[in-house]
């Protein structure tokens, strides 16, 4: 029955034999979509020529689906208006299943309806509705669109008749390609009388009927690119005249007022211009532009979604990499913590070992300091002995100088005595002879003393040579002590470099560990024969004897 009705409406010959042949081996039966759709495409739709009534075709489809899907709740519109809204939905919906109408097309349709009703468009109200719609789904189905228009949400304050007239006008505009319609007066070609007709303007034709029910058609005005329309002045008692010129004939028409006249002239002129340019009707062109725009937006959205997926995939990969890096960092941190623990343990062991070594170094340094102090004390004693020997050597030198001076003085005295004796020889000859024996005795005593002094000098020289040998021996010992001191000093410097703490103390101690030994309490006496050669009493007696002899000689 469905196939027969479709063939009847689409003006396609029906072939029952082909139907039976197609579904012979179909176990699911002829109602299966997989089996019926290939038959529908091959034996019905491919044979359609386009010379069928689209409204009747839509009405048959509406009859098949309306009873099952139309809402049972009371609506502001009737079944006929619901059918027209359904047909408009099929025209404005997207070309993919399931069919939906996007919010932009809903806004366009509601604006057309509001304009046809003569009301103002509530943009803010629709924006709120659009936001609520976008959060739930992409668009509306045909039945949801019928419920939206039938609920009166965007036609508050309008009665059923106004809403029905608006739907009918929009239906004619979108589906029947009616660009403009209305009553006007037309002048007849034969009788030349003026008759009221219902004019309907389509993209390439103007049809006029007896009334607006479109049942009694009186004629057509075929439009093409050669047609033109122009306004006429007041004539025949008609104020709103305009003329439509075609190739074969012209038509004089009178509108009800100037506004209607201008609207019709503009609409017809626009249609002629579109025919000259070969462009489709405005609503179809706008629909095509919107479709291209929506396809572009969809492509951009798909591209954006693809990029978002790629970014999400990249982000997931990055997250995985970060997780891997985090695990590696945790493992590295664990290893670092273990190594730090081992390092701290090793450090503690090294610190303990270093403390023990430091204690040993301190003990070694203390022993070395004691040895240095001892060596320094010995060196100081040795240096004191050296200084004493040097002082003794100086005193011996002074004694030798005194002895030399005494001998020179003695020779001088002798020379003076000889000189004085020679000058006073004649004057004191008697006195000299008197004293000759005494002098001879004195000379003998002097010779004896001289011999004794010479012997003592020889003894002192031998003692001086012995002292010089001792001094040289002491100098060698001093050099050896200095070498030992240098060796000890090098050892101290090595110990200072190892411990890095006692060098300054040793340098400080070098100036403090010089030991000072007490000298002899008794005073030392020196003479030409060496130190301590005479006692103090003997020295005083000798001094008195020398002074007496000197006074006698003078």
What report would you give on this structure?
- Helix content is 67%, strand content 8%.
- A hairpin with a 6-residue loop joins strand 1 and strand 2.
- The protein is an alpha+beta fold and 554 residues long.
- Residues 505-521 have low confidence and may be disordered.
- It is rod-shaped and about 225 Å long.
- Helix 5 packs parallel to helix 9 (160-174), helix 6 packs across helix 9 (160-174) and helix 11 (282-423) runs antiparallel to helix 12.
- The strands form two sheets. A seven-stranded antiparallel beta sheet has the order 4-3-2-1-7-6-5, covered by helices on one side. Strands 8-9 form a two-stranded antiparallel ribbon.
- It has helices spanning 2-9, 16-22, 33-43, 54-69, 79-92, 103-117, 123-136, 142-150, 160-174, 258-277, 282-423, 425-499, 503-510, 536-553, and strands at 180-187, 194-202, 205-209, 217-222, 228-231, 241-245, 250-254, 526-527, 530-531.
- This is Switch-associated protein 70.
Query: Globular, elongated, flat, extended or rod-shaped: what is the shape?
Result: rod-shaped
Number of helices: 14
**Terminal Cα span:** 191 Å
Rg calculated over all Cα atoms: 75 Å
Please outline the helices and strands:
Layout: H1 2-9, H2 16-22, H3 33-43, H4 54-69, H5 79-92, H6 103-117, H7 123-136, H8 142-150, H9 160-174, E1 180-187, E2 194-202, E3 205-209, E4 217-222, E5 228-231, E6 241-245, E7 250-254, H10 258-277, H11 282-423, H12 425-499, H13 503-510, E8 526-527, E9 530-531, H14 536-553
Antiparallel strand pairs: 1-2, 1-7, 2-3, 3-4, 5-6, 6-7, 8-9
Helix pairs in contact: 5-8, 5-9, 6-9, 11-12
């Amino acid at each position: 029955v469905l196939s027969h009705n479709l063939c009847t409406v689409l003006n396609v010959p029906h072939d029952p034999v082909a139907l039976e042949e197609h579904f012979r081996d179909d176990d699911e039966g002829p109602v299966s979509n997989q089996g019926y759709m290939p038959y529908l495409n091959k034996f019905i739709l491919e044979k359609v020529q386009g010379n069928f009534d689209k409204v009747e075709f839509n009405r048959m489809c509406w009859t098949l689906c309306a009873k099952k899907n139309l809402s049972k709740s009371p609506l502001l519109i009737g079944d006929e208006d619901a059918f027209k809204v359904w047909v408009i939905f099929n025209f404005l919906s997207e070309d993919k299943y399931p069919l939906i109408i996007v919010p932009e097309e809903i806004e366009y349709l509601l604006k057309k309806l509001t304009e046809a009703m003569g009301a103002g468009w509530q943009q803010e109200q629709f924006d709120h509705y659009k936001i609520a719609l976008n959060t739930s789904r992409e668009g509306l189905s045909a039945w949801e669109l019928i419920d939206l228009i039938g609920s009166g949400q965007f036609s508050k304050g309008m009665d059923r008749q106004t809403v029905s007239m608006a739907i009918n006008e929009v239906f004619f505009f979108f589906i029947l390609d009616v660009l403009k319609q209305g009553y006007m007066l037309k002048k007849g070609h034969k009788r030349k009388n003026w008759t009221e007709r219902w004019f309907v303007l389509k993209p390439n034709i103007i049809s006029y009927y007896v009334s607006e029910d479109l049942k009694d058609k009186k004629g057509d005005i075929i439009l093409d690119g050669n047609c033109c329309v122009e306004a006429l002045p007041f004539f025949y008692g008609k104020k709103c005249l305009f003329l439509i010129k075609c190739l074969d004939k012209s038509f004089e028409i009178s509108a009800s007022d100037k506004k209607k006249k201008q609207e019709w002239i503009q609409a017809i002129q626009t249609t002629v211009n579109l025919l000259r340019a070969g462009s489709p009707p405005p609503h179809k062109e706008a629909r095509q532009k919107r479709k291209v725009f929506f396809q572009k937006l969809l492509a951009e959205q798909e591209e954006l979604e693809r990029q978002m997926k790629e970014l999400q995939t990249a982000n997931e990969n990055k997250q995985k990499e970060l997780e891997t890096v985090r695990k590696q960092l945790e493992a590295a941190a664990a290893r670092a913590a273990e190594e730090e623990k081992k390092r701290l343990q090793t450090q503690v062991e090294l610190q303990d070992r270093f403390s023990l070594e430091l204690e040993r170094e301190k003990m070694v340094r203390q022993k070395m300091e004691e040895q240095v102090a001892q060596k320094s004390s010995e060196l100081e004693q040795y240096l004191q002995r050296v200084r004493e020997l040097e002082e003794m050597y100086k005193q011996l030198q002074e004694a030798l100088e005194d002895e030399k001076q005494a001998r020179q003085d003695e020779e001088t005295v002798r020379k003076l005595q000889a000189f004085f004796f020679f000058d006073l020889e004649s004057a004191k000859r008697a006195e000299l002879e008197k004293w000759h024996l005494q002098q001879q005795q004195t000379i003998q005593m002097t010779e004896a003393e001289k011999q004794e002094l010479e012997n003592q000098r020889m003894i002192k020289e031998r003692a001086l040579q012995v002292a010089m040998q001792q001094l040289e021996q002491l100098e060698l010992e001093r050099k050896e002590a200095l070498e030992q001191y240098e060796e000890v000093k090098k050892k101290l410097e090595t110990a200072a470099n190892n411990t890095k703490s006692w060098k300054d103390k040793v340098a400080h101690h070098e100036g403090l560990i010089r030991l000072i030994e007490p000298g002899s309490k008794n005073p030392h006496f020196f003479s030409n024969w060496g130190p301590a050669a005479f006692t103090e009493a003997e020295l005083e007696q000798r001094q008195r004897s020398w002074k007496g002899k000197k006074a006698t000689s003078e």
